[in-house]
Amino acid sequence: MEAGKLTREGSAKFEKKDFLDFIIENDIVGFFDKPIKLKSGRESNWYVNWRTVTEDVFLTDKLADYIISFANQNKIEADTFFGVPEGATKIGIITQYKYARQKKDYKKGSSVLAMGRGKPKEHGDPKDRYFLGIPRGKTVVIEDVTTTGGSLLETIKKLREVNVEVVAAIGLTNRMEKREDGKSVEEALAKEGIKYYAMSEATELLPIVMKIKNVSEETKKSVIEYFRKYGIKEI
Q: Does the 14-230 domain belong in CATH 3.40.50.2020?
């Protein structure tokens, strides 16, 4: 069966406005009075955190539907969805589970439920060291928050080491930042032959959320300055 051929709700249209509302309603984007250091080493007054959603069964189920409809709308053909460990592990599993059940040929052995380890085992075959279930066929990697793409690229590297065919990467939210080499995440992945898709972008979310949360002028200035320094574009 061709990848991506689904039945039932899997073909639902992705509504960008609904997804942005989902993000705002669930406080995925927020602000700090004092900047904190990110994994990238940069100091930021604002954050994107999908944990509130992925800790809730109902919201995770809804998020998986958004991802599947987004993939379908963008004509991304997939056999397996795989979440970047550990931030997107749960949403990768739930998305793959729902996606597999919607396939016309859903049966024993038709789909794999793949998961990456947060920390590799010290010994053993790479397939067992890094994974609990190896993705099969055309694989789409999901990341919750994309900053410089380091974790995403590392995950793709590990998948390729065990001959997994990665066809695309989807970020729930792209922070829209330049990497240290001056490239965007899209450019960095394109160099690896992989197209990156962002379901939402910080530059479209932050102006809305700053207004709703009545953020102080000082914090606004810090966010604006942050994008002047690190952003792909200013806000």
A: yes
